[in-house]
Amino acid sequence: MIYPQVxxxxxxxxxxxxLRRGRASLAFSFFAQGATFALLVTRIPAxxxxxxxxxxxxPVFLAAVPILAGVGSVTTEQLVKRIRPGLLLRCLQPVVLxxxxxxxxxxxxxxxxxALGAFGLAVGxxxxxxxxxGVSLQRSYGRSIMLSFHAAFSLGGIVGASLAWVxxxxxxxxxxxxxxxxxxxxxxxxxxxxxxxxxxxxxxxxDEREGQAQGQSVVFKLLLPLCLVMTFAYIGDSTVSNWSAKxxxxxxxxxxxxxxxxxxVYMVTTLLGRSLGDSGVRRFGAVAVVRLGAVVAALGFAVxxxxxxxxxxxxxxxxLGLGLCVLVPQTFAAAGRLFPxxxxxxxxxxNVFNYVGFLIGSPLVGALGDAWSYRWAMLVPMVLVxxxxxxxxxxxPQSDRYxxxxxxxxxxxxxxxxxxx
Length: 421
Fold this sequence. Notes:
Elements: H1 12-41, H2 44-51, H3 58-79, H4 85-105, H5 109-141, H6 146-169, H7 174-192, H8 208-213, H9 220-251, H10 261-284, H11 286-306, H12 310-324, H13 327-338, H14 343-371, H15 374-377, H16 379-386
């Protein structure tokens, strides 16, 4: 006798559709944040000129942003115990965009301080909540998708930097450069936020807070290797963003115009590496991809350090983009696997070390370059990136710590086959 099948919860097709929309909307948020951040950091000279910020005072303003971002990330850990990360992200993204517009619209130092303070606090919560949702979605998919979100961030950075170049080339006022971007991205992100998974979706998906209620907590000793990898990765990244142009011009003797190329190449190769990275994780496992990324990044720093001329130096920065690009997304993903029932807290704490690396990297290389030489200074981030090899096993799924290290699908994902996400 055949009994009728009773529907229990959403159908697979409905869940698949919701997750796809959630992935697309979150990717757009990463894109918007990449563009916003690039528009801020690439117009720092224009911001300095607008407000008359002295060279001595500028580092104070620049350091305040990542410090406040760290505070925002820590605060987010507490907020998500009561508010879904998707709702928090929906509220914070407009704040970041409006703070960017505030930076370009003010006239006095106090106004700049308020705008940058709001930007820093909000961006810390924004980065944390975006990656929380990314980790949660990856768990729902049962396969690596985290790199695709950071690829969207890289694409946004390229677009933002290009728009900043246009503004600088045409000598547009900052608010004129920023206003059209904010006018487009703010409503677009608000509309897209309707489909965040974890922010009010009607489909049953894993909710970390239920697991947290069961008592799992983040043990910092276990998270520490990932915190170190995150710090070292951002030391490498900030070295490229802050010193590549100066290194090419002053050390390798390039022209002013050519010295602007390495960072653009770095961003493009970062986008390329992240676009292909998820397929590499699925095929070879996170441990292998992280090890390869660390080796390629270290090779890039070595090439930069010994480069006889500008073109070889640009080859080194190209390798840096391909190597460093996989480390940060996989570090967030590994934290989610390490603490599956407390991933929100793990991501928020790990995200703080994003800003620690950013704060350390540029001053460290600058001090070593002035006291020693910029060629030798490039070997310091090289050694730090190689330390990632020591902690590579931390990136393996829990069940595979002593096995192959490949992603293992969740039970709910078995049987999706060609109708996968």
